Amino acid sequence: MKLYVFIVYFLVSFSHPEGAYTRIPGCNKSYVGIRGKRINTDFLPKGPEVEVREISDEYRLEIKNTGPVVLDSRIDFMAKMFNKTGHLADSTSFLYVWNNDADFHELRKEDNFEANMTQTYSFVLPSQYTMQVCVYSKEEKLTHIKYHLVAKGGTKFTLTSLLNGKIDLKQSLSYQKHKKVLATNIPIDFSVNLTDKFQSKPTSSFHWFNGKTLLGHTTVPKFVFTLKKAEKMEKLSVSVSTSLEDEFVEKKGEWSEDVQVKDAIQGVKWNLSGRSSVDVNNLLNLTVFYKASNPTVICWEVCEAKKNSSYCSNTTCESPLTGNRKQFDVQVGFPSVGLYHIHFRLENDVSQQHYRTGVVHVYATDSYSSHGYAIPIFFSCLGVFIVLVSSIYFVRMKRKPHVETADFDFHPSLNREEPHPIITGIKRTFTHQFFQPKHLYSSLQQPRTSARSYDSMSENGPL
Q1: Membrane-crossing residues (predicted)?
Q2: Domains held by the chain: number
Q3: What confidence tens digit (pLDDT) does each residue in 217-233 have?
Q4: pLDDT score of 53
Q5: The pTM is what?
Q6: How far is CA 106 from CA 101, 171, 329, 388, in A?
Q7: Is residue 435 part of a domain?
Q8: Average pLDDT, the chain
């Protein structure tokens, strides 16, 4: 079979040495048909072999095709007639004459403002060819029908020896900067879309490769796999073999794509210089650690921590980090006194992560200093007040009115003009509490009483 195809190709190339550039017969000025005969099946005598140099601008012809296609597959040609206003022409009938320089087969067909034609090319050489379309309007006479040329045009189409299609690589990533940069450890959907259409249903097999390593074999045009190693360039490819059993034809095709593999951002940690407050005139140091493939960039903004506030400052970004460094040290400023969050994001080619710090208290230097001194002063005053109240309490306890006391002037040397008893009591209390610790300890060992004891004197000595 292959030898037969080769012989046909050889004969075609020998008989048409110019290949795809062999001249197509030009559009004739008119065709004449015998009334009552079908125009697309009967032979039509041609008019003079003279090309029309000027065609009325009443109509405009647009021609398209579904190429490129592989040999032995189907290719569709579409022609549309438009009037001066750009709308589809409303004529009931046109004659379309299709000519090509691949097999030089001519097809005539009556149709309305839209005409379609399908061809299958087998015994021609793979190359680019031209399909020419001549469009005629119909004029009915008493004994015959005359067709006048109203539009002509052409379209290039390509026939290939290999299957046609396109491969696609997809990952379920929330962020992907470049389509050809993939993430590690995330499933990759590898697929191929074959565009060739055959008359009969083909049977295909697909072999999937990473470089020269075979990843797997399927009978469907899809394969799922993962890549483990980052910072590498990989060549992913698929080899397809399609068989047409009824026609004993086998077609092949191969597609490949070079991709880069990187690690997504993970393991993010940060700290705020060990504190959560800063003077409004100073900058707060934010240190961020991460694990990912570089280049990586950090951007941040300052947002108020109030529930009903949506204020955020302008976004600021650092230059991307490259190499092996995985730490950002940024300085953040604040617009005014208040409570704020720092919103920041990390971004590389395959991921984007958003984070928010805790509340940062931003204060003014003067107000913060006054608040700092207020608390110590308050507690100092409170301590002095407690000591004074305690002293007064002890003095009053010692001078209760129901305890009888005697005032004997055993010590004439006492100065009766000493200070007020309350002040004297406070003085003695302070002296007793802070300057006589031993006496304090001994007094704690003896039972306390509010009564005073006195020594009585006798002539013979103490009683």
Answers
A1: 373-395
A2: 3
A3: 999 999 999 999 998 89
A4: 41
A5: 0.66
A6: 10, 49, 75, 123
A7: no
A8: 79
